[in-house]
Amino acid sequence: LPVPPMSIRFDQAAGTLSPAGPELTRRMSDLEGLFLDQNAWRTAVADGDPIVYSVVSSLVPEADRELPQSITTIQPGSTGGEFWMTKGHQHPNHQGEIYLGISGRGGLLMFDGTDTRWVDMTPGTIGYIPPGWAHRSVNVGGKPYSFLAVYPGGAGHDYGWVLEYGLGQRVWRQDDGVAFGGYFAEAS
Ligand code: PA5
Ligand code: NI
Fold it and tell me: Which of 27, 52, 55, 155 could form an S-S bond across to 95 if both were Cys, CB 3.0 to 4.6 Å?
């Protein structure tokens, strides 16, 4: 059902929306097949299955012509050396999207099937996802990374696309920051 014109309260310190729909929580067990080191992933699932990220959305429906928004918070961490991240998805009908960095240090990894792009996301950065670019968010800092997403209500989420084609690059924790590497395991 459509919603009337309304005010949505954004609490910057808490990273919450009000009114909001139910919060979506993604634990390590929800991220099967995404980290390159499957053994490290299994160990993390067995070892407490931590919350990796959560998403809170306003009451604006995900329907054509609506313009819903949500706030994602990714916890700091790494698994097998790979920074914690969202599952990542492609919009089936290739609509664009914008993100706004709220707190913490993260990045927006985008892949169009050929080229990979990385946008550093700090508070105040607007990251633009053009039509046709699959996208994943990564926390590269030591504190929670939060951002606002605003997207066409009919955009949808194709998670299978990322399982099949990847995101072009992986984002690895380094002593002095971030390193990028190939997405699929190299034969050794
Ligand atoms: O619309 C978006 O792109 C975001 O709100 C994401 O859905 C959110 O960050 C969670 O990521 P994912 O949907 O890839 O699990
Ligand atoms: Ni999206």
Answer: 155
DSSP characters for 63-79?
STT---EEEEEEPS-EE
The reply to whether 24 falls in a domain is yes
For the question of whether the overall pTM of this predicted structure is more than 0.95, the answer is: yes
Residue 71 CB–ligand 1 contact under 6 Å: no
Q: How far is the CA of 88 from the centre of ligand 1 (A)?
A: 7
Residue 76 placed within a domain = yes
Cα–Cα distance, 45 to 2 (Å, whole number): 39
* CATH code, domain carrying 74: 2.60.120.10
Q: What is the mean pLDDT of residues 71-95?
A: 97
Q: Is 70 in the pocket of ligand 1 (CB under 6 A)?
A: yes
